[in-house]
Design brief:
Structural class: alpha+beta
Distance between the termini: 49 Å
CATH architecture of the largest domain: 2-Layer Sandwich
Strand content: 15-25%
Number of strands: 6
Radius of gyration: 22 Å
Amino acid sequence: MKQTDARITELMSRLTVLERERVEILAEINALRSMQSEGTAAIKVSGKASDPIDRNSTIEKKVALFRGLFRGRSDVFPIRWENRATGRSGYAPACANEWQRGICEKPKVKCSACPNQAFLAVDDVSIERHLRGTDANGAPFVMGVYPMLADNTCSFLAADFDEGEWRRDAFAFRDSCERHGIPVAIERSRSGNGAHAWIFFNEPIPAALARRLGAFVITDTMERVPDIGFGSYDRFFPSQD
């Protein structure tokens, strides 16, 4: 009997904690909904001006569009690398000293801890190479962006969907954005088995606010489509506040 009573007491305590958490979550959802009209007013997908950009536009206009949308840190950017022997790939900061003998000590020393950092700033040449997909020597060239600025703000939010029911999940996310007047752009990922949903802001906003907006869209979608599990949802970029 004593064990049963103790178990009942334990379960009742857990219910109290869960109910408190439920109340807090509902309060945050309501707060997000109340700020939605204010928060989304500053959200807009750029590039839909009177002079639209298409495949026939000049490279200068394409580069300008890219710069206007993917506004992250301008003092450094990552480049995609791939090890064909191991099949591994990733991104590392573009650096003028990369693999320079006696200077670069990768992989023993991480780029973030290297005393010989000579990171390259974002420029039009790199963006053009990214858009073309190759560098000056014809080698594959893919640049990324560090979205978090020094003041913890960002100019866009990206939701990453990988594998599983990624099509359904990404389009459901898009539908929720459209229902709430949030312009969103869907892009198929490099692997072909996933997608990215991009929300661009007119001006930098706190990353925490951007992520809360994304969380609101996720929650709203799950309420609207109860059977969706968002199993393909991976993470937001920026990935931290």
